[in-house]
Structure prediction request, 323 residues.
Amino acid sequence: MYKKFFGLKENPFNVNPDPRYLFLTHHTQEALACLTYGIETRKGFILLTGEVGTGKTTLVNKLLEWLHKERVSTAFVFNPRLSVMQFFEFMMADFGIPCESRQKGQMLLKLNQWLLERYQAGERAALIVDEAQNLSPQMLEEIRLLTNLETSTEKLLQIVLSGQPELDQKLSQPQLRQLRQRITLRAKTRQLTIEETQGYIQERLRIAGAENTEIFSPEAIAAVYRYARGIPRVTNLLCEHALVSSFVDQLNPVPPEIIEEVARDFDLHIIDPLVQAPAQPFPHPGNGDNPPLIESLLQALNTLVDRLNRVETAVEPDRERKS
Prediction:
């Protein structure tokens, strides 16, 4: 309903992980290069970690887009809460490997034969597991054993594990030390700086068809950064609702007062007392690298994500302030 008012062709702040909207900061480019290099050079295990809402799944979708262009065979497991047999069945089906048997040994034989055929044809295969922090230690060990499918010189299957920082904690357990030692490359997604937040918002507006990308005033962008703390998912949430509210009030560009109002609606104003301080003019050198701000974000992040998840599922959010 607001697209015509702001001159947009589509919704620029959709929460879906659309790879077209991947904003390539220095850290994002570095992470994507790490993933593509690891698969191209058959490094075996690659780990991608990042805080909630920092764009891991969008990055994975961009990787999948590239892999399909390169004709790399892929299996993408987006729901890791599976039993071992369910995991293997899903993987085989996504690779397109026919296997009538439901015995793990027979599946592994089929998989090994198929991978050898791909290798002899000069082709590659990649298994990508999203939300890998939810994998059980038993399932992680089963995945590790898949790297035993190899020639004398190279790994036949490249594996990318993508997950929240809890995945790093899980891999530090003594019983998973063999898997931890096999991880050859590590990539990370990070929060945006205030300058990157400005570029992120304007780039999404441009991709969505805006001829004028100054739809948010500089003060509004500063307010978005104050409340979103560089988290792209929260930035999208604030900007989407701000566009709706500004359309209703017929305001263009979006003023900071609208951002403040949306932040209060989602209780973002109470996650940390720092956000109650007066907004700094935009841009404000150093804000993006403010260690206390980032430290505070990490402490408040789980509370924030819980609130947003409840909003997205239409459940009344818990409005009690957590100590």
The two ends are 39 Å apart (CA to CA). The first strand starts at residue 45 and ends at 49.
